[in-house]
Design brief:
- Helix content is 35%, strand content 35%.
- The chain is built from 4 helices and 5 strands.
- It has helices at 2-15, 40-46, 50-55, 67-83; strands at 19-27, 35-38, 86-94, 100-111, 117-126.
- It has a 5-stranded antiparallel beta sheet.
- The radius of gyration is 14 Å and the shape is globular.
- The protein starts with a helix and ends with a strand.
- The relative contact order is 0.23.
Amino acid sequence: MIRQRLHAGLVLAAAQPQVLVGRGERRLGQPDFELRFVSDGMLRLLRCSREEITVRYGNNWKNIVHPDDLAFTVAHLDEQRKIQPEYRLSYRIQRADGSSCWVMESSRLTVNADGIPEYVPMHLTLF
């Protein structure tokens, strides 16, 4: 069921123009998926304030992903990271107001100034 919904989301994304609405950063190898940066666009997408990123979501990407999509999304991310340095993935997020929406995530592997691998930038595109 989730795979069908993700496929439907990819088909929809391909058919509609995409507009960048958010950006965040996650460090590779951190199982908690802590958000290190959140753009104003991502705050608008989530319909929340910077404080709510910490209070409501625990500054954690896993808490933003819709619970019904989380297991598949994390497994797919792990799979993609093993085979390529860049990836795209569609999934639903849960907004602060209780609604959900589909996003397309695009990320690439980089190495930060401390020599630590990170997937950045994490662009979320609403579709």
